[in-house]
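Record 1 of the preview.
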Amino acid sequence: MAIRFTESDRSTIGVEWELQLIDMDSDDLRQCADTVTQMAQQRGGSELIHGEMLRNTIEIVSRKRTTVAECAQDLAEGIEFLEPILVPLRIELASAGAHPFADPAYQRVSDSARYAELVNRTQFWGRQMLLFGTHVHVGVEDVRKVLPIINFLASKLGQLQALFASSPFWAGVDTGYCDNRAMVFQQLPTAGVPQLFPDWQQLEGFTRDMLKTGVISSFDEIRWDIRPSPQLGTIEVRVCDAVSNLTEIRALAALVHCLVEYASRQLDEGQPLPTLPPWFVAENKWRAARYGMDAILIDNSEGDESLITASLPTWLASLEQVAADLGCAQDLAEIPEIVHIGVGYQRQRSVAKQAGNLEAVVAHLRQEMVAGRPLRPHTEVSTKGVHAPAAGNRGWIGGRESETDAEVRGAQPGDQPAPPPQ
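->
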């Protein structure tokens, strides 16, 4: 079957940011996105505001833009539009790849036949999709470039994932992963690392086979971490967790924007783009999810490896001219500072250890949303007034105390866990 890739202006950009609806009194998620979107329509509506799979989520989508700064202005406009709707409902916005302690079993699916069918088909795993992501679209002017650029981006998938990992906690426990969202989301059919094809015809053949065998009913149901978006004429990078503030959104968008334009220029000059075999791409994804910024990633098809923090300065430097041309040099330059402060999952763990509860992590995420930048956990995050439950009410799965809770109460190796709450 033929898949038409819509004509698009080169290196235009759009950003999608999935946000959590946080109850101001409990720090838990609120299941009221349908109410919020209805109220938004009553206020005249906004093209920037959208519902998502779960009723605890609002997505803000930028307009088609040429710069990261313009996308950021759109996202800020969407947040400002929502504020007078959310305040009377005692809801605040926050975001991360997952909510630290919300129970996936309690989350309600939006009134959508598409999402209802997804849950019906995937059963247990479909009901675990308590996940929040950041998606960046970049326009590509020539369909012949699309798959070579995606194959190149796949070689940077682990770096992108680690830099913006922000889902260490799941249902009240520290998972031991930095990006647990990645581990959960890949349980869906057609999700996870992208299939790597040498040309568009092979992608069309793959899609034909998936449609014929009922794996998908439309191309949109291919949920790879990096995928073509034929209707929009873009490459969509979906691997990153939702981040908690506009500064990191801008840095993420700038990095993706630069990588796509860099690859496009290399193709224009007839230069080969570095790629990795699919098995190395998959391994890098797992290492980044598990170890985050401490991951040793596979750099090339020969299997050479390096610590992500060691290789980061070199490949960021290779993007500096592209960033200057795209007008996002300052946003790209924020990445080393974010790494210095601590990326999302590191800041969350630091707050949890310092405060002794996961409600403080939610407070931290809310404060970063307001501040618009990463906050240093030990000096800039306030946990005053945080509603913390009685000891033991967080981190209990099947009667077992989480390692995080044990560490917070000062347990030593070999100690018996504290008894569960009665």
